[in-house]
Amino acid sequence: MLSKPPSTRPPEAQAPSPATFLKAKAAWRWPEILFWISAFGLILLFPNRHLLLNEIAILGLFALSLDLILGYAGIVSLGHAAFFGVGAYAAGLLAKHGVSEPVTGLLLSGAAAGFVGFLASFMILRGTDLTRLMVTLGVALIFHELANRLDWITGGADGLLGVSVGPILGRFDFDFAGTTAYTYSLTSTFLLFLLARRIVHSPFGLSLKALKDNRLRAATIGIAPNRRIVAIYTLAAIYAGMAGALLTQTTQFVSLEVLDFARSADALLVLVIGGSGYLYGGLIGAIAFKLMKDTLSAMTPAYWIFWMGFILVILVLIGRDRLMATLARPFAPLLRLLGARRP
Fold first, then answer.
1. What does the pLDDT look like over 225-251, one tens digit per residue?
2. Angle (CA) 266 270 275, round 5°
3. What does pTM read for this prediction?
4. Residue 259 is inside which H or E element, if any?
5. What would the DSSP string read from start to end of 23-46?
6. Which of 109, 158, 256, 302 could tie 91 with a disulfide, CB 3.0–4.6 Å?
7. What digits encode the pLDDT tens for the residues 271-330?
């Protein structure tokens, strides 16, 4: 019996083991560390902009949840606001009826949205991209109409009144400047980001990418597509529900607007701006989207939507990667010094 000849390739040319590959992918890089230090540093640097920063942190978490299914599983959704709204109403109802502690309400709201996401995930297993678009949109429309009809529970078009949120962990009260709200939302987003980062850099995350590239080929190598789609869709629903709960808890109000189609569209636009499939796209896109919206609405209150659309069209026509490469060219020496590359 012939023995296998020893490899003549140099050690550095051999393919890394799966464990080594995942460890290298999960390693933290300087731009990531600087990003989060800057995010928390804004608590001290911009004390007058905490309300806007709180909105950015919540939108970033919502876009992150969409990125989990779009960027890693290839599922396009026009109705992701359904889970955002379920979490928002769950947090509002819990606070109104006795569970006013924010962290407890946040976890329960995420669980409620995750349960709805788990049930909804079975409706998208057999469909193609266009069918999934319609199914996700239909689910959101159903929840929007239910919230409107069940006004004795949700408040209907007037919104849910009487939401009173207590101090975080019984110690930190929400203030009018939004400092506690931004710190709370940013910390929640950061912790959930760490969990998402751990998941996408695991064998489960790699199997999702295989499904996104070619579902049939992934199934032939032993990957169970349906179980993974159900799992990641449920997880994304939990994230979206928590984002909705953060909005309710920090504003102490919830209305039908949380279930509106425009909220789903905003999350998609955020990913168009920031990119999908690397987690930071939702966060960076949320910053750019909110700043553009805030600036344009202040400059031209009547036409800010036109200019927002114009910028997005230019962005799509030129290409985000090409535009970012042009903007980053003057900083190339600094980026090389920091070892920056796409996370």
1. 889 999 999 999 999 999 999 999 999
2. 150
3. 0.88
4. none
5. HHHHS--HHHHHHHHHHHHHHHH-
6. 109
7. 988 888 888 989 999 999 999 888 888 888 888 888 888 888 887 777 766 666 666 666
